[in-house]
Amino acid sequence: MIQALIMMQFHFKKRIVLHLLMLVVILSMLPLMINFGQDDWERIQYSALSIQTTSLLMPFLILFITMDHHMPAMRPMDAFFGRSFMFFSKWMVSAIVYSYAFVIIYFIQESIWTLWNGSNVPVQILNTYLSLHAEGLILLTLCHLVLKDRHKTLSLLIPVLFIVLAMALEDIKNPIFHYLFPIGNTLFRHDRLAYPYQLCYSVLVLMVAHQKSIWENL
User: CB within 8 A of 4, min separation 6: which ones?
Assistant: First the structure.
């Protein structure tokens, strides 16, 4: 079943485009690596800019991953296997592909920097990337909630609105906003409890999306 979903959602041409998009995200870091040196302050500047660049590009990669989850060809499978089983299977496939892309991008970015400057990755930066990964899971789940095959022409608004909301929340100090919308804030990303909280938040959105998929018509 999982293999069939992967073949339907991520056929050969789409996998090629996916890896090309990953390459674009990775190559976007090269000018930053060249411009910064080896001291700790410049390492922090590079990490901040790389995180900002990744957070701007990853939503469009997530949209590309999830845009075919509601294709008409899967409706007979929904009827045969059940909506709940198919919903969680499609979400799991999308989450696995997204996590694979994120880990590859992060690993290559930090490996190139380590080889370039011979410095290790600080724990705070790792916490930030974990939080960024959870933000992607939240967006991925939102795409499963609102993205439908008949509305593909409007799908580009989803990552754009997500980025705008994250930028609007970045400078807000009130923690209530970050509990309601746990995305975008730099201080929140540095918190070691941000990642588990964001995972719980994505599970909550997943439950809402699951209920919506059960109620809607095929």
Answer: 77
- For the cut 80, the answer to whether the pLDDT of residue 121 exceeds it is no
Indicate the pTM of the whole model.
0.85
Distance CA(75)–CA(164), nearest Å, equals 33
CA separation for the pair 106, 99 (Å, rounded): 10
Domain range summary for the chain, segments of one domain joined by +: 2-215
Least Cα distance to 126 among 102, 106, 140 occurs for 106
**Structure-token match 């990490």, residue found:** 47
What's phi and psi for 118, nearest 5 deg?
70, 30
Residue recorded with tokens 């899971």: 137
Which tops the pLDDT comparison, 52 or 163?
163
On average, the pLDDT of the chain sits at: 79
